[in-house]
């Protein structure tokens, strides 16, 4: 199974093509634009194991059209667990199966209709060898004693469901860290919201409506008239000249916000501070974190697993910043389980993390 989106062209991450391949049935390409409810397909394949590469990228858009697996094999995640140096689909296929996949259309506008023939061939090839790749990876994981690790990881993906919306998405604007004060952040938020509303209405990627860099430069320039705004790069273009009242109005609304409604410099965090501040704020915690990272790096190397797959880095930081009591392996194991770590991760890391907690 695979899906093609129109990232960078359309608003959101909906699927514009779905590719399926099953032994005995061949390859099918489905256009979900005129067929937005594929529950009939779901009924036919729900009992099967679905093989996807980097499943987290495609599962949300597949769920929107009624396709939700009950069993999963993620070839990208399997390649990570197997210790392969490169885990992109083309690299893994070439390494394990000896084939070179056709390239050139991964960043195409898949909302294009009709889809060119060569694009359809490219899309079909993405699922042509996925089951063979799954079998090769399963064999590799079995040789390394990691079959159960992979099963737990795949089950965790299915249990997690769709990702929750990220709070304050405007804070991910490229260049936001160049803004000096809360007033500027308020203006950027207002401009971002105006752009997002327009992009959603037009079904166009927000960056194509107005680039992030243009928004940040407009906030920094703080133009007091529409004419001054039109003097800035990007805003001189024909499209943005027609929208000047929209952009200028958004800047003005942000400029006029009461002080109490301005955003803070950063979102309040429930977790520990950035690790580069630990040495000043809590030297003992910084010592614990260094010990934990060194031990985990050694463990990851010994098992040929990326350290971020061995255990969540955020969970490690939380443990080292606010250690559970008593600081023993059983307590650490309970904290890891509560934080979402899988059984195999807990078994591998509990002792080294408990040891790191005693270093200070």
TrEMBL record:
Q: What is this protein called?
A: Ribonuclease D
Among Pfam families, the record links this protein to:
DNA_pol_A_exo1, DNA_pol_A_exoN, HRDC
Q: What organism is listed for this UniProt entry? A: Geodermatophilus pulveris
Bias type Basic and acidic residues, positions = 258-268
Task: Cite the GO molecular-function annotations of the record.
Answer: 3'-5' exonuclease activity; nucleic acid binding; nucleotide binding
Residue ranges of the HRDC domain?
181-261
Provide one Gene Ontology biological process annotation.
nucleobase-containing compound metabolic process
Q: Which PROSITE patterns match?
A: HRDC
């Amino acid at each position: 199974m695979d899906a093609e989106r129109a990232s960078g062209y359309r608003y959101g991450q909906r699927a514009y093509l779905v590719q399926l391949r099953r032994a005995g049935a061949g390859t099918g390409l489905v256009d979900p634009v005129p067929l937005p409810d594929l529950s009939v397909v779901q009924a036919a394949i729900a009992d099967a194991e679905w093989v996807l590469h980097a499943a987290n990228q495609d599962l949300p858009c597949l769920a929107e059209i009624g396709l939700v697996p009950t069993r999963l094999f993620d070839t990208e995640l399997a390649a990570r667990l197997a210790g392969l140096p490169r885990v992109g689909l083309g690299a893994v296929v070439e390494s394990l199966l000896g084939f070179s996949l056709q390239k050139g259309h991964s960043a195409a506008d898949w909302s294009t209709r009709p889809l060119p023939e060569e694009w359809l061939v490219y899309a079909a090839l993405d699922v042509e060898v996925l089951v063979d790749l799954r079998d090769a990876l399963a064999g590799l994981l079995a040789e390394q004693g990691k079959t159960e690790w992979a099963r737990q990881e795949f089950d965790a993906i299915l249990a997690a469901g769709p990702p929750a919306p990220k709070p304050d998405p405007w804070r991910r604007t490229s260049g936001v860290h160049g803004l000096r004060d809360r007033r500027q952040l308020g203006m950027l938020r207002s401009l971002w919201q105006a752009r997002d509303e327009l992009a959603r209405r037009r079904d166009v990627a927000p960056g194509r409506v107005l680039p992030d860099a243009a928004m940040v430069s407009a906030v920094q320039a703080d133009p007091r008239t529409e004419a001054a705004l039109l003097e800035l790069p990007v805003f001189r273009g024909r499209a943005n000249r027609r929208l000047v009242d929209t952009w200028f109005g958004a800047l003005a609304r942000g400029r006029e916000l009461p002080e109490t409604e301005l955003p803070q410099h950063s979102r309040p965090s429930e977790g520990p501070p950035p690790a580069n501040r630990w040495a000043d704020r809590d030297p003992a915690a910084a010592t614990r974190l260094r010990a934990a990272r060194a031990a985990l790096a050694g463990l990851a190397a010994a098992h040929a697993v990326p350290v971020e797959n061995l255990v969540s880095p955020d969970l490690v930081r939380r443990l080292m910043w606010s250690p559970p009591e008593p600081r023993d392996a059983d307590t650490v194991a309970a904290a890891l389980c509560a934080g979402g770590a899988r059984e195999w991760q807990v078994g591998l890391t509990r002792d080294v993390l408990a040891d790191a907690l005693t270093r200070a």
